[in-house]
UniProtKB/TrEMBL annotation:
The keyword Mitochondrion does not apply. The keyword Transferase applies. PANTHER family: CARNOSINE N-METHYLTRANSFERASE (PTHR12303). Keywords: Methyltransferase, S-adenosyl-L-methionine, Transferase. InterPro entries: CARME, SAM-dependent_MTases_sf. This is carnosine N-methyltransferase. Belongs to the carnosine N-methyltransferase family. Its EC number is 2.1.1.22. One of its GO terms (biological process) is methylation. Transmembrane segments: none annotated. SMART domains: N2227 (SM01296). It is an enzyme of class 2 (transferase). GO terms for molecular function: carnosine N-methyltransferase activity.
């Protein structure tokens, strides 16, 4: 066999491997969402077991508990209803029916579930994408082998009639006529088109929700679903306004002040939001008149933000019960079991500027690219820079992709995400103090124009007796020159 043919075959195998890994990873995330009702039900059963162990006199004091358990189950099924509608609206960018067992290929057969995916391009349904999507390293580290069929993963879902009787908005998410997220097919800010143009397959039917394709995932995966539910409140509920005012408002005010003439300019300034989470900040920046791009690498986040951004039809269309999963620090059952309506605004009519997009993929992979050099007028990082393996690399990339005179606005703590990843070989984690972060920024050509501390919470239940507060660093830096090396 000639060398070229061998190399071609190697490349083909590599691509196949990457696709398999991506499908496995995405299946696992979808399975985590689908496992939610079952895992939540197990919690309620645990509470019931504890309750049954009580002496009769103590039980009598808590005679309302059986009805609380009933209400909890009702809340779980309402949350599950939302989740299932979200999954139904999701169009996987990959062929989810791909045979991931790939018999006969020794390399592929031996690939563990936690193998990091390769460099292939993948995208979320609404996103322009140039990097790979994945669950975070933490997610990957927790991946388990095995693909036990999950038969009852969506049992306990609430039917439309039940939803109606609960006085809840039950509009099914139908297909939104076109996405609100506008981007060019080959947009200059680093995205390829969504499904189709890069060879990815969009499953038109929902056979990827078939129970036989689902995995029995570890509980920690389902915990991530619960975190997403809390994130929804931060970004898309009236209850999250206070937190958004603490975190997003200073950023928006700063952008507003720094680009006073943006509406008069022929082309609006560009702003990138790495680690965009559920997309609210990126949307608000777009509404301010910027060409805004959110970047996010977690499918957990992207599936949810895509649903809210592209498929919501009315304000308060969905009801969720975000606080039911913790019995701790509750002032009352009423607080714990209170509903939250989402979204608080209708993204489609929020007033976004042309060019708003969400770009799926690892920030480092997507933006450490020659075509990104000097592209952005502003980069906004909110609770993001501490997600780095190497924060200096983030700073270097931010500096490189900014135009000269461009600004970097940051808000957040330094709670390094990989700091506690003991036992995972090769999990690099560089944990700089704020002082050293600033030194690195100066080295990469930044100068401070503003610096302060902002007190804030992050996805905190505003009615909880526990309110973890960050004294987050807030700064604006201007790129005055390229790095000194
Ligand atoms: C702490 S959350 C903050 C989300 C949002 N900025 C906010 O303030 O609510 C950090 C986000 O960054 C994402 N993220 C972490 N590492 C990333 C990377 N290398 N590339 C892109 N996104 C990343 C995570 O998935 C997560 O959504």
């Amino acid at each position: 066999m000639s060398r070229e043919v061998e190399e071609d075959e190697d490349r083909l195998r590599q691509r196949r491997l990457e696709e398999v890994l991506e499908v496995k990873s995405l299946r696992r995330i979808i399975s985590a969402y689908l496992n939610y009702p079952e895992a939540a039900e197990e919690d309620v059963q645990r509470y019931e077991r504890s309750f049954r162990k009580l002496p009769a006199a103590h039980k009598a004091l808590l005679s309302h508990y059986p009805s609380k358990f009933k209400r909890l189950r009702r809340c779980i099924s309402v949350n599950s209803y939302f989740i299932f509608n979200m999954l139904q609206a999701f169009e996987p960018p990959l062929d989810m029916s791909l045979d991931v067992d790939i018999c006969g290929d020794p390399v592929l057969e031996n690939v563990p579930y936690d193998h990091p995916t390769g460099e292939r391009k993948a995208c979320s349904p609404f996103a322009s994408t140039s990097g790979r999507m994945r669950c975070s390293k933490q997610d990957q580290a927790l991946l388990q082998e095995g693909s036990n069929i999950l038969c009852n993963s969506i049992t306990g879902l609430t039917t439309d009639e039940e939803m109606q009787s609960a006085h809840l908005d039950k509009i099914p998410p139908g297909n939104f006529a076109g996405t609100i997220v506008k981007h060019d097919e080959q947009d200059e800010h680093g995205g390829n088109d969504v499904t189709g143009s890069n060879g990815n397959v969009t499953s038109s039917s929902h056979n990827w929700l078939d129970p036989s394709l689902q995995l029995n995932v570890p509980l920690v995966d389902v915990d991530k679903v619960r975190c997403i539910i809390r994130n929804i409140v931060r970004d898309w509920a009236a209850e999250g306004k206070n937190e958004r005012d603490q975190c997003y408002k200073p950023i928006l005010e700063e952008l507003d002040a720094l680009f006073p003439n943006r509406c008069k300019e022929r082309s609006p300034p560009t702003c990138l939001v790495p680690g965009a989470g559920l997309g609210r900040l990126a949307l608000e920046i777009s509404c301010l008149g910027f060409v805004s791009q959110g970047n996010e690498f977690s499918y957990y986040m992207m599936i949810c933000s895509s649903f809210i951004l592209n498929h919501t039809q009315t304000v308060g269309q969905w009801t969720i019960y975000p606080w039911i999963h913790s019995n701790c620090n509750s002032l009352s059952d009423g607080d714990q079991l209170r509903p939250v309506l989402i979204p608080d605004i209708l993204p489609a009519s929020a007033g976004i500027t042309e060019g708003f997009s969400m770009c799926g993929g690892d920030f480092v992979e997507v933006y450490n690219d020659p075509c990104q050099v000097g592209v952005w007028d502003a980069v906004v990082t909110c609770f993001f820079i501490d997600t780095a393996h190497n924060i200096i690399e983030y700073i270097e990339i931010i500096s490189t992709i900014l135009k000269e005179g461009g600004v970097w606005i940051n808000l957040g703590p330094l709670l390094y995400h990989f700091a506690d990843m003991h036992g995972h070989e090769d999990e690099m984690s560089i944990e700089l103090s704020l002082e050293d972060v600033k030194k690195a920024a100066l080295h990469y050509g930044f100068e401070f124009t503003k610096e302060k501390t902002i007190e804030t919470t992050y996805t905190t239940n505003p009615r909880s007796m526990m309110q973890n507060r960050y004294h987050a660093a807030f700064w604006t830096m201007r790129k005055i020159k390229a790095a000194t090396t």
